[in-house]
Design brief:
This protein is mainly alpha-helical. Among the domains are: 45 residues, no CATH class; 46 residues. The protein contains 6 helices and 2 strands, in the order αααααββα. The chain has a two-stranded antiparallel sheet. A hairpin with a 2-residue loop joins strand 1 and strand 2. It starts with 14 loop residues before the first helix and ends in a 10-residue tail after the last helix.
């Protein structure tokens, strides 16, 4: 029994005596006397800000890149190229006049011809004298045919769906009859 702690009663103190209140005046006469003075900064003008060191105004001028000069070797090459091009144009003009080289129009027509397996097929201009009524009749027939084709496909799908539903209902009936046959109608069957 000597291992138990001893119980000592705590002294009861009056809580009202322990509270100490201090009242501090918010107005402090010493702090009011010490007030820093505000010194305004001088306002600088833009001319003073952007002045050079030797008191002359700065001027902004664009620096132009030096123009590229063609060297003598490049000039010679250009002269030779121009002469070759002129000579080639003159030769082509002579060939076109004789008919050995196709003209620009003939070349455009030749470019428009279809090419299959590196064989150029000729196309002939077909002029159609189809009236507006003919176009309307043709478009009506085409749309009617498209609708009829879609209708046939839709009916075929509908017939297939009915067949599937018929097979499923037959299977469901068979399943229900089997359930009825195997089900026991005795209310006390689960007790045994």
């Amino acid at each position: 029994m000597d291992k138990l702690p001893e119980i000592i009663e705590a002294p009861v103190e009056n809580l009202d005596n322990n509270i100490n209140m201090e009242i501090v005046d918010e107005e402090d006469p010493v702090e009011d006397d010490i007030m820093p003075e505000v010194i305004p900064k001088p306002i600088l003008e833009q001319k003073e800000i952007f002045k050079s060191k030797d008191d002359r105004p700065l001027s902004i001028s664009k620096v132009k890149k030096p123009k590229r000069e063609i060297s003598d070797k490049q000039r010679e090459n250009l002269k030779i190229a121009r002469e070759k091009a002129l000579q080639k144009r003159q030769e082509n003009a002579k060939l076109r006049k004789t008919g050995e080289l196709p003209t620009k129009k003939e070349k455009e027509i030749q470019d428009k011809k279809p090419i299959v397996n590196n064989i150029i097929h000729e196309t002939k201009n077909i002029t159609n004298n189809i009236s507006k009524e003919d176009i309307e009749i043709i478009s009506a027939q085409a749309s009617k045919k498209a609708l009829e084709d879609y209708e046939m496909v839709r009916k075929h799908r509908k017939a297939e769906k009915k067949e599937r539903q018929k097979v499923e209902t037959e299977k469901e009936k068979i399943r229900q009859t089997l359930e009825k046959a195997t089900k026991v109608n005795d209310p006390y069957s689960f007790c045994y």
